[in-house]
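Forum > Structural Biology > Help requests

Title: Can anyone predict the 3D structure of Septum formation initiator?

Hi all, first post here. I have the sequence for Septum formation initiator but no way to get a structure on my laptop. I'd be grateful if someone could post the structure tokens.
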Amino acid sequence: MVGSNDSDGAERDAQEPGPLIVTEDENLLDDLLRLCAAAGTMPAVTHGGGAGSAGWDSAPLVIVGEDCIDRLRGVGRRPGVVLIGQQPDDTRVWQQAVEIGAERVLGLPDGESWLVDRIADAVEGDGRPALTVGVLGGRGGSGASTLACALAVTAARQGHRTILIDADPLGGGLDVLLGGEREKGLRWPAFAESRGRVGGGALADSLPRLHALRVLSWDRGESVTIPPTAMRAVMSAARRRGGIVVVDLPRRLDGAVAEALVQIDVGLLLIPAELRATAAAGRVAASARTLLRDLRVVARETPGPGLPDGEPARLLALPPVGTLPWDPHLAESLGRGIPPGAHPRAPLSRFCTEFWARVLDGPETAHPCHQGRGVPGAEVGSRSWLDEGGLS
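Reply #1:
Sure, ran it for you. Structure tokens for Septum formation initiator below:
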């Protein structure tokens, strides 16, 4: 199963245990504490020796200062030990590293970037990355933001750790659509300067929590720019936590959207079942497919005459996911403050529930879908619920 469930059906944001630092060098300790903070974690600190072995076996990573290496001789070997040496190329230091089973000898400040990444990897684990679904509108007003919210709300309601990312600065804010514009937490402008690694746990903890999921939306300011480096850092952090990430994408491609597209496993192109909407969607699809390998069509029923089921996907030569039924009560529900996907019997909720059931629980997901990019069934000639028409 791709998504990670909590036993109580709610997301857990407990702080993961941090690394163990073994040193008596105050200057080195200050540097290591700073790097742990950059990785979004709080370490345990000891000075080596008998008491220093406490936490040696349980910490996700052990960082040893060269000053304490003599005190660690005889401590049982374990993976995930990094030795910090003043002269990392010194043969003597390498011999000491071998004695304690260190995986790497590092000098500071040259190795700071690598060490921050290594700390974050150890704390956050090396589990399967989040299944990441992007939603694009085939034309303006197609309902892509509503579908993105409904997918995220439905996933969170089922107990999956979920992050919803608003990548459309002109969309009005997904926190508004979810009724949480006053909820405390960071919005996009706060991440605009992110260039290096962002901790996955730190990212989630900083975001508003709405309907059991974390939401990265826009504030009410005038800024409408996401630097590509910031999008790359945020998307990577969100995916490293596992579970599910849903991204609401704008129809126009820029550098930031390009960074998001390359980290998306499957894109859903939502198209009202109309000829003009399908023609407009063709241009959106052509742009997105330059970076998104797996793009599929969700046709949305219209209140009046429209194209037959499956026709938008056929005209665009893209695989169909299914047809989203027309819901005459959707606008009324949104006006009453009911978020998309919250009513389990509504057509939108049923569509999303079936989507996750097939993608997350189907036999075709027995192996990680991320190895070949895209959800299972994307390969030519394969047979899956998506290739056979999905939800229509």
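Residues 20-124 form a domain with the Rossmann fold fold (CATH 3.40.50.2300). The longest helix spans residues 347-361.
Shout if anything looks off.
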